[in-house]
Amino acid sequence: MSQIKVCGITRLEQLQQLHDAGIAYAGIIFYPLSTRYAIPTLGERGAEVRRLSIKKIGVFVNEASPVIERAVTEYDLYAVQLHGDETPAFCQSLKTKTKVIKAFRVKPEANLDSLVSPYQEACDYFLFDTSPAAASSAAEPGMYGGTGKQFDWNLLASAKINKPFFLSGGIGPEDVEQLHDLSHPFLHAVDINSRFESLPGVKNMDEVRKFSAAAGSPNGWR
C-alpha cells in the first residue's frame, strides 16, 4: 500500500502532529534557497527532532557529502532526498551510510526510463516531481521543485520502473480519487507539500488529516 510523505516541515510541533496522524514520512528541507528551508526554525533543535519517531527525510540540493552526513546524524534522518544534479557515483557513496531517494524533475514527454537508468543501483528509491521549467516559463534560477504543478502521470504507466518511488508535484486534497485510480506496483508513497499549507512551511493539519483519512487508512490508499 502506498504511504504519505508530508514535505517542507519547519515546525517541531507539526512533526509530532504528523506522527500522531499516522503519516509515514516527514520531509525537512536543507536547501537554503527554498522558502521552506528548515534550519532557521529547527537548526538548534536537533536533539528534539531526533527524539521524534516519525521517519524524517532530509531534502538536499547539490550539497557536499560531509554536510549531508552531519545532518543525518544530527536529526536522525531515515533517508536523504537528493533533489539536484547529483551524479550516480555521489548517490552510491551516500547509499553506504543512509537510504537514498533520488529525485527526478519530469518534463512533458520525458523518457523516465532514460532518466532513472544511470541511478538504478545508486539509490533505494526514486522520486518524480514536476520540472520547474515545465511548470512555468518564468521558473526562478535555483528552483529545483515546489512548483505546485503536476506532471503527466501517464508517463509512469509507459515506463519500466522497477524500484519503489515517491510521487510528488502539485498533489492536492482533490486528487484522492485520481490517486486511487493510479495503479502502479512500485508506487511507494505520495508526497504532498504546498497544496496543504496555510503559509510556506506551515501545514494545514486539518487538510492533511482529511487527505490521510480519504486515502482509506492512515498508511495506505486501499
Q: How would you characterize this protein structure?
A:
With 222 residues, this protein is α/β, with parallel strands linked by helices. The chain has one domain: Aldolase class I (TIM Barrel), CATH 3.20.20. The protein contains ten helices and ten strands. It has an eight-stranded parallel beta barrel. The chain has a two-stranded antiparallel ribbon with strand order 9-10. α6 links the parallel β5 (99-106) and β6.
Short characterization:
The protein is α/β, with parallel strands linked by helices and 222 residues long.
Keywords:
single chain, 222 residues, alpha/beta, TIM Barrel, eight-stranded parallel beta barrel, two-stranded antiparallel ribbon, 21% strand, disordered C terminus
In CATH, the architecture is Alpha-Beta Barrel
Helix-strand makeup class = alpha/beta
What is the quaternary state of this protein? single chain
Radius of gyration: 16 Å
Please tally the helical runs, counting DSSP H or I stretches of 4 or more residues.
Answer: 10
Query: What is the global morphology?
Result: globular
Question: What helical percentage do the residues reach?
Answer: 25-40%
User: SSE order in H/E notation?
Assistant: EHEHHEHEHEHEHHEHEEEH
Could you give the count of β-strands? 10
Q: What's the story with the biggest beta sheet?
A: 8 strands, parallel, barrel
**What is the top-level CATH class?**
Alpha Beta
- CATH superfamily (homologous) name: Aldolase class I
